[in-house]
UniProtKB/TrEMBL annotation:
Residues 246-330 form the Mechanosensitive ion channel MscS C-terminal domain. Belongs to the MscS (TC 1.A.23) family. This is MscS Mechanosensitive ion channel. Residues 129-169 form the Mechanosensitive ion channel transmembrane helices 2/3 domain. Keywords: Cell membrane, Membrane, Transmembrane, Transmembrane helix. The lineage of its organism: Bacteria, Pseudomonadati, Pseudomonadota, Gammaproteobacteria, Candidatus Pseudothioglobaceae.
Length: 341
């Protein structure tokens, strides 16, 4: 047997191992494709994501295993390979870590697709934190395996963390601002928000910045720390839209004012698109320079802006018809000039 192995050249052996690895690669792909085909028939889609996640790392493990075996076979013929083995024998740990991280990403994609009650931004946040913790834990384990002192690393990390904290104060404040957004949820991706400095739709909540698309379709990138220092309004979470109008009639129509307001209030109470559980008021408010002003105050059931505009339009036209029906007129600025002969 040894004579046979000695007659085989290194290149022939490498070629044979390559054929074996390629065959194993195709076999594994066939097996997993069959499993994935069967999994797609089930109602639960989690297995689809997990199979898709672990297939590349498994293929990588096969190739690594065959490369590792081939190096072991030829260590006697190529002395430098003996030192190579000491550096690559921990590669499976990194490949397995890669597989675990991919599985976390698969679970994240499954939860987002399932549309559960948990906010998608929160799912992404916890997924990222889980990946970071896994990578840190594996890195510390590898460091200990290579002979480094974990306690020393942690001590250095504590001192280095203080130094980095002072050096990257703004970056850390933005990261913690992003965490507060995920925990308090003043807004989520897709919400319409506004403040004194910006207004638009939230497109992405990142670790450091949040991207907002303004109504002029321009992207605005806002550091997350800003949201902890300014008030934010989220109009997309409104329960109703408000109608608040001031309408004035002529002073000559003061006798018709009570009946006009009474009919307007009754019209609003009977209007199907007005939310009658909310405040509804029609009241005389002000003796203006050229008009008698009364307020109309109500809330619509819809929050859609287009529908709201149509409802408001119909209500204002109905108010105009009521005023006209009582021989009154909507006032406009006028002046009376007396000329003495």
């Amino acid at each position: 047997m040894n004579d046979v192995l000695q007659n085989i050249t290194i290149y022939q052996s490498i070629g044979a191992l390559f054929v074996v690895a390629f065959t194993a690669h195709l076999t594994l792909s066939f097996i997993f494709n069959s499993i994935a085909k069967h999994a797609r028939k089930t109602k639960n889609q989690l297995d689809d994501h997990l199979i898709k996640a672990i297939l590349p790392p498994l293929k990588m493990l096969i190739w690594f295993g065959l490369i590792f075996l081939s190096i072991n076979v030829f260590t006697d013929q190529v002395k430098i390979l003996a030192s190579v083995i000491t550096y690559i024998d921990i590669m499976p740990i990194f490949i397995i870590t890669w597989g675990v991280v991919r599985m976390v990403s698969g679970i994240e994609a499954y939860l987002i697709e399932k549309n559960i009650h948990i906010n998608n931004d929160s799912i992404r946040l916890f997924s990222r934190l889980a990946k970071i913790l896994i990578i840190i834990a594996i890195a510390l384990g590898v460091a200990q395996y290579l002979g480094f002192s974990i306690s020393g690393l942690l001590t250095f990390g504590g001192v280095g963390g203080i130094v980095m904290g002072f050096a990257a104060k703004d970056m850390l404040s933005n990261i913690f601002g992003g965490l507060m957004i995920q925990m308090d949820k003043p807004f989520s991706t897709g919400d319409w928000i506004r403040s004194d400095k910006f207004e638009g739709t939230v497109e992405k909540i990142g670790w450091r910045i949040t991207r907002i698309r303004t109504f002029s379709k321009n992207p605005v990138y806002i550091p997350n720390s800003i949201f902890t220092t300014i008030p934010i309004e989220t109009p997309s979470r409104m329960t109703n839209r408000r109608i608040k109008e001031v309408i004035g009639i002529r002073y000559n129509d003061i006798e018709q004012l009570p009946i006009i307001m009474s009919e307007i209030e009754q019209m609003l109470k009977e209007y199907v698109d007005i939310d009658h559980s909310q405040p509804l008021r029609v009241y005389f408010n002000h003796f203006n320079a050229s008009s008698l002003d009364f307020n109309v105050y109500a809330f619509t059931k819809t929050v859609n802006k287009t529908t709201y505009q149509k409802v408001k339009e119909k209500i204002l036209l109905s108010i105009a018809q009521i005023i006209t029906k009582h021989k009154a007129e909507i006032a406009y600025p006028t002046q009376t000039l007396y000329i003495q002969k």
